[in-house]
Write a structure and sequence with these properties.
The structure is a single chain. This protein is of the alpha/beta class and 377 residues long. The chain folds into two domains: 4-265, Queuine tRNA-ribosyltransferase-like (TIM Barrel, Alpha-Beta Barrel); 273-366, no CATH class. It has 15 helices and 16 strands.
Length: 377
């Protein structure tokens, strides 16, 4: 079968619902991928992640390459068997992590040299080695190596970087073996619409299996991010899935689905859970707030997740204040349930051609006055 096929089943304005056919099953889109950076969605069993509605998860090549090593994972049957996840896995190339190590890496035409953040060992990453690493992991969707330029990069730097990214993508495609997974290119160009268009032009010539929008949600103003997405998605090749990397704020998910995005990933719901912040249809709840000390209510009335069905805000606050490990599990269950149900609601609304009304309803709740805003630390 083909490595990847995206079947569009319904549209509502620019929003679209569909089915992503991978070699390990079908993923309903628009989809959110919980982040399992090191071969685990922190705190949860794979069966729990699946039971909450996740159909595909994300792993990270950089971290798995450092520990336990991709050769080790391969010898143990690949990442799916290693972590007991039978469904599709998308692996990030690790480029974002490498290029965030500004003091520990150097960049040239052939690739990137960097120091491991674990032990300082000098390592080398090239477009070819990244593809090979993802093949050893058994990834179903592989990302090309690219540079994620730091926020505020000069226009000339961004222009040169995206040209090199395209050359790297061509090398990655040439290096992929017959058993390699689908390969997705990454559109860069900062907040400049003409640079984004140039990146799309170069990557589209390669006829990759899908296209990601990178270098966003890294500090630019939110309205500008939305403008870039709105201007870029219509230029991407038809019939290919569109993946927005690293965006997981509920309101952003709703809006970006309306701009034609099919796939998302972000650490936000799981990281916030570990910090004691719960996502609800009325905004965020910071369980560290003393007003929840004696609150017998669930996180959200009507929520059918195991956390809300069995535990109170008071109990969850007690756990997080006592630094009990169960707090991280229960909070993560709720936050992932919330995000995955939000995506399911978007899919239903698109199928019924009522995306606009559904989006307005969700956003009205999330953005009502007085909602808490907690830093993601």
């Amino acid at each position: 079968m083909a490595r990847l096929r995206h079947e569009i089943t319904a549209v509502s304005g620019k929003a679209r619902a569909g089915r992503l056919h991978t070699r390990r099953g079908v993923v309903d889109t628009p989809a959110f991928m919980p982040v399992g950076t090191q071969g685990t969605v922190k705190g949860l069993l794979p069966e729990e992640v699946s039971g909450l509605g996740a159909q595909m998860i994300l792993g990270n090549t950089y971290h798995l390459m450092l520990r336990p090593g991709v050769v080790t994972v391969d010898k143990l049957g690949g990442l799916h068997r290693f972590m007991n996840w039978p469904g599709p896995i998308l692996t990030d190339s690790g480029g974002f992590q490498v290029f965030s190590l500004s003091g520990l890496r150097s960049l040239d035409e052939e690739g990137a040299s960097f120091r491991s953040h674990l032990d300082g060992q000098l390592l080398r990453m090239t477009p070819e080695s990244v593809v090979r690493a993802q093949e050893l992991l058994g990834s179903d969707l592989m990302m090309v190596l690219d540079e994620c330029p730091p926020p505020g990069s000069q226009r000339d730097y961004l222009a040169a970087s995206l040209e090199r990214d395209a050359r790297w993508a061509a090398r990655a495609l040439a290096a992929r073996g017959d058993k390699g997974g689908a390969l997705l290119g990454i559109v860069q160009g900062g907040v400049y619409s003409d640079l984004r268009a140039r990146s799309v032009e170069l990557l589209a010539e390669l006829d990759l299996d899908g296209y990601a929008l990178g270098g966003l949600s890294v500090g630019e103003p939110k309205p500008r991010m939305m403008e870039v997405i709105e201007g870029t998605t219509p230029q991407l090749p038809e019939g290919k899935p569109v993946y927005l990397m690293g965006v997981g704020e509920p309101a952003d998910l709703v809006r970006c689905v309306g701009l034609g995005v099919d796939m998302f990933d972000c650490v936000l719901p799981t990281r916030m859970a570990r910090n004691g912040t719960l996502l609800t249809s009325r905004g965020r709840l910071n369980l560290r707030n003393s007003r929840f000390k004696d609150d017998p209510a669930p996180v959200e009335e009507g929520c059918q997740c195991p956390t809300c069905r069995h535990y109170s805000r008071a109990y969850l606050r007690h756990l997080i204040m006592a630094k009990e490990l169960l707090a991280y599990r229960l909070n993560t269950v709720h936050n992932l349930h919330y995000i995955l149900q939000l995506m399911a609601g978007l899919r239903r609304a698109i199928a019924e051609n009522r995306y606009d009304s559904y989006a307005r309803q969700v956003l009205a709740g999330l953005e009502s006055p007085g909602q808490e805003r907690v830093a993601l630390t």
